[in-house]
Amino acid sequence: MTTAKDIMHPGARWLPEHETLDRAAQMMREMNVGALPVADGNERLCGILTDRDIVVGCVAAGHDPSRITAGDLAKGTPRWIAADADVEEVLRMMKEHRIRRLPVIEDKRLVGMISEADIARHLSDAQIAGWAERVYAEG
């Protein structure tokens, strides 16, 4: 059985909700990623911040990224998957919630992230096609 841990990108790091968006962008550049999971003071997932969130939600709105925090933009119900979850469960969750990145949790700790690139590298063409059709569907 292929699990979330088998296909994830290891080494993900939390972005504290109090961290500013300019620092978040620097971390994304340093880690060569486009999204970071946002954690509250108890290291519990409270959202995901993307590079697009920073550009559209802050910069394009005329706000100063050194004054806006990750927590200010982390909205909605965060989703995550257990490290030992079957890859079919990963795909189901991403399809159902129409999300493109999924934090992987093991023993209540962040151990990695699953992104579109991870899916493309590890799954069959049929699995990728089904996932993409649902995640990118209109409406």
UniProtKB/TrEMBL annotation:
The CBS domain, residue ranges: 8-66, 73-130
Keywords of the record: CBS domain
The UniProt record lists the keyword rRNA-binding: no
Gene3D superfamilies, per the entry: CBS-domain
Signal peptide: none
Superkingdom field: Bacteria
SMART domains (UniProt xref): CBS
Protein name: CBS domain-containing protein
Organism encoding this protein: Streptomyces solincola
